[in-house]
Specification:
- This protein has 13 helices and nine strands.
- The protein has a single domain, classed as 3-Layer(aba) Sandwich (Rossmann fold), CATH 3.40.50.
- Helix 8 runs parallel beside helix 11.
- The protein is globular and about 60 Å long.
- Helix content is 38%, strand content 9%.
- The protein has 401 residues and is of the alpha/beta class.
- Strand 4 and strand 5 form a beta hairpin.
- The longest helix has 24 residues.
- Keywords: Glycoprotein, Hydrolase, Signal.
- It comes from Gossypium raimondii.
């Protein structure tokens, strides 16, 4: 380990050392803390929903349907945009719960299989309604599904998982609700079109949607009246009324370190880049702004519901440790995609990982932070999940029942 020559560096070294203890001493499953997990979000959490939707509704399969996706753990494509497991997979393992099945498989399967939980996250999903985004010049080429749609699907299926209102309350009381990651696509679609003004305008709307949802009627938020955002809003407030008591809400990642946005905004102005990491400073500041507003909204929600556990997952600061001390985490490549092609960051938006000719990837995905230029490798996800799991256990004082 590098010599610590200042108090700040010493603190960082101690943090890294603590994280290594977590990783080396493998976490034993905490059976009984939660009987189920229900998750919502986008491709960072999707365990196969977009693939199922594509199979049911169109002839065009997503990149997650093709190798080398899934090569590390599943050894075949699993519907995940990753070489292996996602953070949600590691959390399920740590809690002694099977990997979450995608909710769209309920159309062809038995709901009894979903008693341990269900995943409603869809790759490409946004926090805000797609029609609202289109009105603001943002076009989602992946899907028209929003967080409101995912939550309404959950509400529709919930009665099939429990026999009565009391049983549903008991099910949700003993469940972990993972609200995200969501919102990144709202911003990234804007950034990819270099509509930075729209991305900035979306931040308070996205945050408010995640924290308490935006209703069909005009909503007063911080003294401003916002137009209709969701067609059928299903707020977290209603999840609480249905019986949910424990929420895990992730913040945004350091998007300034993402190969896709680094490629999109690649330029010669060195002042825009962090000299220590090579990440785009202004994009990371954008992520921090989102996270600051989100934490403020979650605190308001806690004050209104003191008996509810709302755990914030600090993905930004956990992930930034990878970029500041990559060797400590086993990473050799920080800003290049493992499965990609061309350019400084090994990323080309028109040649997604999985589609020809990208049927192969780097020799050792565990030495890369980024899998395909947008999503993390299993190795990075494992680090994230271990820290998030520790925070979850401390914040909920989980006692197996």
């Amino acid at each position: 380990m590098a010599t610590c020559s200042s108090c700040w560096v010493l603190k960082q070294c101690l943090i890294v050392g603590f994280l290594f203890v977590i990783m080396i001493s493998s976490i034993q499953p905490v059976n009984g803390c939660f009987t189920s997990i229900f998750s919502f979000g986008d491709s960072l959490t999707d365990t196969g929903n977009l693939l199922e939707i594509s199979l049911l509704e169109s002839n065009k399969l997503p990149p997650s349907a093709f190798p080398p996706n899934g090569r590390t753990f599943f050894h075949h494509p699993s519907g995940r945009r990753c070489d292996g497991r996602l953070v949600i997979d590691f959390l399920a393992e740590a809690l002694g719960i099977p990997f979450l099945r995608p909710s769209y498989t309920t159309k062809v399967g038995r709901l009894q299989k979903f008693q341990k939980g269900m995943n409603f996250a869809v790759a490409g999903a946004t926090a805000l309604n797609s029609s609202f985004l289109q009105e603001n010049g943002i076009h989602n080429r992946s899907t028209n599904i929003s967080l409101g749609d995912e939550l309404n699907s959950f509400k529709h299926l919930l009665p099939s998982l429990c026999s009565s209102s009391a049983d549903c309350k008991k099910l949700l009381r003993n469940s972990l609700i993972v609200m995200g990651v969501i919102g990144g696509n709202d911003y990234n679609h804007a950034f990819r079109e270099k509509n930075n003004e729209a991305a900035r305008k979306f931040v308070p709307l996205v945050v408010h949607t995640i924290a308490s949802a935006i209703h069909v009627r005009n909503t007063n938020f911080n003294g401003k009246i916002f137009p209709r955002i969701l067609t059928e809003a299903f707020p977290m407030q209603e999840l609480i009324e249905l019986g949910a008591v424990t929420f895990l809400v992730p913040g945004n990642f350091p998007i300034g370190c993402s190969p896709d946005l680094l490629t999109n905004y690649q330029g010669s102005n060195k002042d825009k880049y962090d000299p220590l990491t090579g990440c785009l400073t202004w994009l990371n500041q954008f992520s921090q702004h989102h996270n600051e507003l989100l934490r403020t909204e979650l605190e308001k929600l806690r004050n209104r519901h003191p008996d509810i556990n709302i755990v914030y997952a600090d993905y930004y600061n956990i992930a930034m440790r990878f970029y500041h001390s990559p060797k400590q985490f086993g990473f050799k490549e920080t800003l290049k995609a493992c499965c990609g092609i061309g350019g400084l960051y090994n990323y080309n938006s028109s040649r997604s990982c999985g589609y020809p000719p990208l049927k192969s990837s780097c020799n050792d995905p565990s030495s890369y932070i980024s899998w395909d230029g947008i999503h993390y490798t299993e190795a990075a996800n494992k680090w994230l999940a271990n820290v998030v799991f520790e925070d979850l256990m401390k914040s909920t004082t989980c006692v197996p029942y």
